[in-house]
Amino acid sequence: MSNVLSVRDLTVSFASEAGRVDAVRGVSFDLEAGKTLGIVGESGSGKSVTSLAIMGLLDENAKVTGSIMYEGKELLGMTDKQLSVIRGNGMSMVFQDPLTSLTPVFTVGDQLIEALTVHRSLSKKEAWNRSIELLNLVGISEPERRMKSFPHEFSGGMRQRVVIAIAMANDPKLIICDEPTTALDVTIQAQILDLIAKAQQETGAAVIMITHDMGVVARTADDVMVMYAGKPVEQAPVHELFHKTRMPYSIGLLGAIPRVDKAEKEPLTPIKGNPPLLINLPDACPFADRCPIVMDACRTKEPELLPVATGSGDLHRAACIRADEIEDGGLLGGFPVYPVRAVPESPLAKLPREERPITLEVKNLTKTFPLLKGAFLKRKVGEVHAIKGVSFDVREGETMAIVGESGSGKTTTLLQIMDMVKQIDGDIVIAGTSVNDIRSHKVERQLRRDIQIVFQDPMGALDPRMTVADIISEPLFAIGTPKKEAHRRVDELMDLVGLNPAHSDRFPQAFSGGQRQRIGIARALSTNPKIVVLDEPVSALDVSIQAGVINLLDELKAKLGLSYLFVAHDLSVVRHIADRVAVMYLGDFVEHGDVDDVFENPQHPYTKALLSAIPVPDPDIERTRQRVVFDAETMTTRPVLA
Predict the structure, then answer these.
(1) Each residue of 473-505: pLDDT tens digit?
(2) Helices 513-525 & 543-560, crossing angle to 10 degrees?
(3) Rounded distance, CA 637 to CA 633, Å?
């Protein structure tokens, strides 16, 4: 079969004040029709820049060299006008954020029709009919009516469906998907991946799937290219890459992922440090400073991407001088490439749950929002029941997780607890004190010492104008801690969360995403709380950084006897970190119990659908699983047809 796309020695560099940034440094691959190439790596590895170079969408200040052959035509050197004939027609792209891909002032129908008529000589009626057919194909109900809707009237998943419809409008030969499911719920993610597979089937296109989720790669890819510091460091067929990994970086990525199908609470494998700055890189292995099996020879010359002895010939290549020493299962000489960390064990783990004190008790929690009508004189026409009588408790040294799709009421539940909202027919009891008994700000302030929160976006939660010392000490000063004691406590907390206390005078911008989240955790621990509320604390982080934060949370729970109330949409993370889990649907708990019981033997159809939608980072398991979807009308599940 002939190649739709052949890339040879692609390099992309940008001029900056600090010097030339070599964002892509020699990418080469071939892609056949009907095949899917998965490109994975951390943020800044060059994945997206590679895709933008192929599409010809880079800024004018980008210097691109090498060769990009699309169906035998060289794309480098083409003018924007020449590329516009191919873009959207022969090649199309699905971006990460669908809202930025769609023009907000035009209807969905206008944008679909434009994608068709720019490249084809179609009448208005033919373009309209084809657009309706495309919306039908991507599963949008009432397509005739939705053609007249604007993008803001669609949910995130529906907008992504529209973008995929536009991408497949002209039966392209190549579809590039750049993190198409990152911000979506697991059930919506599964639907979008099914749609991309359907688009590939309908058009016969080759697909490039750029993602940081190894489960998505296991499900969709035929071949995988792992990128680091702008270069491919391992290329292999998907089964080879997962089961015969030969590059320490790839082994680390796989070890950093929590598994929804594994009950063992083993620490994850974080990749220490951060990727190098791509300015004036030395002639050495760029992964050397983070590699657990580095040798002196690794720092003398950058290794080439060469075939490795796994029995697959030239198809499996790795850029590591020790690749042939590494064995299946990520072993070197019979021992793991990444040393196995000890599992932290809390003294409370030996104590039965019923004998531990309750740190948080929620009884019959409800929240309604008024439904208003009218432009000027608003009147109440109904109510939205966001939370419907939820009850649960969290014991000392325990992690309680609440999971569910967007809009299920998870975050509203957290906010009601953090706001200490008094309940008419229920109660919120924090460390033995009922919020209904709060009669003064002084009592409320004392109670707030016992409950703290860590937010989803570490940068949005930290004031960029304050130093780290000021950020961590702010809650301490609020409760009257003397200045000298507060400064001592800041150093102690920074050391506790794995940060250098000498860096406390720096601002948040000087830290990486994972380090910023550690600062947020340190601030939450400053008042010695009994319970920490975690609202999607790792969803904004790379998997390698995420692993370190999850391990830190586990260690702190064991060391300090903390209780966590944890909200996440990533059920793999929940399986790893939680002791108990509650599944939330339309403001109510539909299933609640021990995490292993719920995950191994789900009883409610909604729980079954959620669990079946989570991709497992193993192609052998992922491609043989039966996925089911939840039918809200009948409250049952039905299988997804392949």
Answers:
(1) 999 998 888 999 999 999 999 999 999 999 999
(2) 20
(3) 10
pLDDT digits (tens, 9 = 90+) for 281-335: 999 999 999 999 999 999 999 999 999 987 766 789 999 999 999 999 899 999 9
Q: Which of 421, 416, 360 is nearest to 392 (CA)?
A: 360
Q: What is the DSSP letter of 530?
A: S
Residue 336: closest CA among 265, 245, 273 = 245
Element (DSSP H or E) covering residue 196: helix 186-203
Please state the pTM of the whole predicted model. 0.89
Residue 215 domain-assigned (yes or no):
yes
- Could you tell me if residue 1 is inside a domain? no
Beta-carbon contacts of residue 192 (< 8 Å; ≥ 6 apart)? 157, 160, 161, 164, 180, 181, 184
**pLDDT, tens only, 505-514:** 999 998 888 8
State which amino acid sits at residue 165. Answer: A
User: Is 415 in the same domain as 499?
Assistant: no
Does 546 share its domain with 576? yes
Asked if 185 and 309 sit in the same domain, the reply is no
For 188-345, strand residue ranges (E) read 206-210, 223-228, 231-237, 306-307, 317-318, 326-327, 331-332, 335-336
Q: Of 383, 389, 407, 368, whose CA–CA distance to 585 is shortest?
A: 407
Enclosing domain of residue 325: 247-342
Residues 268 and 403 in one domain: no
Q: Mind giving me the DSSP string for 94-144?
A: E-S-HHHHS-TTS-HHHHHHHHHHTTS---HHHHHHHHHHHHHHTT-SSHH
Domain count, the chain: 4
Q: 561 and 546 in contact (C-beta within 8 Å)?
A: no
CA distance 627 to 642: 9
| Tens of pLDDT, residues 568-614 | 888 899 999 999 999 999 999 999 999 999 999 999 999 999 999 99
Q: Let me know: does 494 contact 532? Beta carbons within 8 Å.
A: no
Of the candidates 297, 315, 342, which is a domain's last residue? 342
Q: How far apart are CA 7 and CA 225, in angstroms?
A: 13
Distance of CA 602 to the CA centre of its chain: 24
What is the token pair recorded at 407?
Answer: 């809009």
Neighbours of 423 (CB within 10 A): 18
Paired strand residues for 367: 387
Q: Which backbone phi and psi does 6 adopt, to 5 degrees? A: -130, 120
Which contacts (CB < 8 Å, 24+ apart) does range 377-386 have?
Answer: 385/587, 386/412, 386/587
Q: What angle do CA 199, 203, 204 make, to 5 degrees?
A: 105
Amino acid at 342: A
Pair 89, 148 in one domain: yes
Q: Which residues pair with 87 in a beta bridge?
A: 91
